[in-house]
Give the backbone structure.
Amino acid sequence: MKDKFYQYIKDLQDTITSKLEEVDGKAKFQEDIWKRPEGGGGRTRVIEKGNVFEKGGVNISAVHGELPETMRKHFGVTEANFFACGLSLVLHPKNPFVPTVHANWRYFEMYDKNGDVVDQWFGGGQDLTPYYLFEEDAKHFHQVCKMACDKHNPEFYPKYKARCDEYFYNTHRNEARGIGGLFFDYCKITDTMSMEKWFNFVTEVGDSFLEAYVPIVEKRKDLPFTQMQRDWQEIRRGRYVEFNLVHDKGTLFGLKTNGRIESILMSLPPHVQWVYDHKPTLGSEEEKLLDVLKHPKSWV
């Protein structure tokens, strides 16, 4: 399974980066191959200063070795080796009318001292972080997510949509990071779901990403915007940074397992503002976004 999924994310990285370069029309992804001293490594691809994408990364990694002490405590084990692989992407567009997007699909195995698999699971999801709310875009993104889920279980979309709203939430701000999507973790063998079925579901979601995001980019990337709207984008990016550094499990896992710091922090945008006690104008489009972030809603 680990070889099968790693091959899948290598191919998916190629597919996604090729399409995004086509959409941008100017910038190309820079590739770095890196190795982790304790075992494994990855292939980082970063795009910067494009026509459409100010900064973005589409990274894959496969790391293995002895589970670090902090992770052993987390999983309640005394001694274990692990293997983890995944694809993680974040795209920060230049135009404030184009939303930031994040996605991640991953697989994890844990072994006993004899090298036998004692636990394994899939995780992942995809979510949208707009700076200006276009309801038709939100509906499109969620509809694609729902279609991918419904092919496997009609209960998956409402379940994983709710988990996404709960997970991507800045509790210290009492607001969501964005308008959500899907989030699932610890997808293990059950009476109805084999690991093969989980693989089929996770890859279905991964394959749906470009369909969910690219039409929104194409529709909004050439809209004119003002400096005030750009400032608002950078203020909201600050909230994105806060979530990734304070709450995000993937960032923390990478830091605790001695991952490559440049790859882990590629999710951070290049231009951000923190304005003291900033409040949008009453009745403005900016305030409209905040209302939705404080009260997650159903889109489909």
